Amino acid sequence: MQEEQQPEAAADPMSSSDAPEDGPKETSSVSQNISDADAFKILLEMKMKKRQKKPTLPSTVTELDTEDGSKVYVVGTAHFSDSSKKDVVKTIQEVQPDVVVVELCQYRVSMLKMDEKTLLKEAKEINLEKLQQAIKQNGVMSGLMQMLLLKVSAHITEQLGMAPGGEFREAFKEASKVPFCKFHLGDRPIPVTFKRAIAALSFWQKVKLAWGLCFLSDPISKDDVEKCKQKDLLEQMMAEMIGEFPDLHRTIVSERDIYLTYMLKQAAKQIELPRASETEPREYIPAVVVGVVGMGHVPGIEKNWNSDLNIQEIMSVPPPSASSKIFKFVIKATVFGLMGYGCYRIGQRTVQFILSMPAAQSYLQKLTEIRSQH
């Protein structure tokens, strides 16, 4: 069922519709005599010849195998990294995949077609309109948490002058150059992740997390980002996070590890070759898949690879807990309190300003004289 719902974009730049219409008549007559199945096999053979049997891959690539012989090459990336972009391009060119799976969901797919300049501007601008959209899409609590995490992303963007997700855009471009290569979105929908993350935290954990994200200001260098590609440093950072917010790590990292693993395994199912007629037996060949995910998800994908996975449980959104209701009430009370106080201060100053005007003072003096006469 899940496989049918996978968003994908087929990249087939070598299809017959792109071929020039004019040309020698002999070529046209020959192409008319070739069936779709034969044409597919010819193009597939060309692709296989270009595919390296023993590819030279970057050190950030982890190779995984399925029971039916399919291969999955998982590229672990740092989301703000030029070298990660190069790793993705190199891997796709070497293995000529049938499917490319990226750590994105349908709510973040717009970044694939935006240019770097636009993304840089979008990432830096966090305004009321974005907050309203996040709350409308995810609810009050999840929307606020999303905006706080966007603030973290904007902080890194501002520090490095680099928009996030460059490796995903490179993967999208390179996939379009490979014949018959499909492009899958492999991450769990972000509203589900945020709602499950919020539900997993206690009231004080939410306050502590929000406080830490609000006052994030430590400088970040490009060297810091590149160090994130080293597993030892990454594991140390994750261990610190687990110690402080173990439930948050479970929902944002561990559960998404399971989801990404499931989607990669779905993409790695054998490919059925086209048949010239219904009477011909079905033929299948192993698939080659490239996965592009953050380096922090690679250990979890390796851990879950040989397990039977069920994603139904991690797709459900639990009802809000008592602490969530309290936190939501506090946030609303604070917002309305500030708005009320603002209106009061504005009203008070407005009244004082009107009363200080000469015309108003003259009018009040006349009223006083009239009252004293009566």
Automatic annotation (TrEMBL):
Highest taxon in the source lineage: Eukaryota
Pfam families: TraB_PrgY_gumN
Regions annotated as coiled coil: none
Gene name of the record: TRABD
Protein name in the entry: TraB domain containing
Residues covered by region (Disordered): 1-34
Ranges annotated as biased composition (Low complexity): 7-18
Species annotation: Athene cunicularia (Burrowing owl)
InterPro entries assigned to the protein according to its UniProt record, in alphabetical order: TraB/PrgY/GumN_fam, TraB_PrgY-like
